[in-house]
Amino acid sequence: MSVSQSRFDPTSHRRFAAVVLTIFLAVFVALAFSPSYREDWLLENVLVFVLVPFFVVTYRRLPLSRISYVSLLVFLVLHEIGAHYTYAEVPYDAAFEAILGRGLNELMGWERNHFDRAVHFLYGVLITYPTREIFLRVASARGFWAYLFPLLVVMSSSLLFELIEWAAALAFGGDLGMAYLGTQGDVWDSHKDSGLATLGSLLASVAIAALHAALDRDFTREWVESLRVKEPVPLGEVAVERLLEAGDRSSNDGAPER
Fold it and tell me: Among residues 80, 76, 77, 112, which one has the least CA distance to residue 93?
């Protein structure tokens, strides 16, 4: 039995996952009432309607770590806040003013609502570890690749979200399209959002790598091994020829004797 298996308590972990799911559902239901823009709320939650059931259904075969579930919970709660108010109109400034007597925008000298910027950055920070865990456990990614692949997933998914927003804005147009797009007049909004998500993921990857380097004596060896060439023969046409030869041998072996 491995160390990870010996320290894994299925019953305790199941309870923890159930608590996380319950907290999210409570937040989801609370923020589903009277959103600022119901159509935008529905659009924002399309992905949630797919991902949350996916994690529930796959729990038996792929229960994620507590760190991953908490990371996903924090991001989804922030996303639900943005969906309730629309990302461009989350009243964080009013909340700061009520607590501190001055709005955050005034303190920072900002002229736009930066809630969407913060969530894109935190998307990179919070989604990197769960994605890394899946790559480690499903794809057996190791060393350098266990850090690169989650970063690429965050970058590509962030870009995909921006393309979906652009397509939705074109398809629906009007106030709904603008509410969902949320550029607030910034022509570089999509670029900045994707860049912040990438930055967040990069910082998370560096932090994870630094922790592993400090705690894992095999960290350097694993990185070196992950970059070693395992197959010295080129692929492409060589691999095709190899497959064709294997297919011919299989056919000949299965041919009836005459």
Answer: 112
Q: Is residue 163 part of a domain?
A: yes
| 243 in a structural domain | no
pTM for the full predicted model: 0.86
Q: What is the pLDDT of residue 184?
A: 62
Reported as a single tens digit per residue, the pLDDT across 135-173 is 999 999 999 999 999 999 999 999 888 888 777 777 766
Is residue 139 in a domain? yes
Count of alpha carbons within 13 angstroms of residue 95, beta-carbon side: 6
252 lies in a domain? no
Answer yes or no: is pLDDT of 1 > 50.
no
The domain tally of the chain equals: 1
Dmax over CA atoms of the chain, in Å, equals 95
Report the candidate in 232, 229, 227, 230 with the shortest Cα–Cα distance to residue 142. 227
- What is the rounded distance in angstroms from the CA atom of residue 198 to the CA atom of residue 154? 7
H helix and E strand count, the chain: 13, 0
- 169 close to 177: Cβ distance less than 8 angstroms: yes
Range of the domain at 86: 7-227
pLDDT for 124 beyond 60: yes
> Do residues 158 and 198 lie in contact, with contact meaning Cβ atoms separated by under 8 Å?
yes
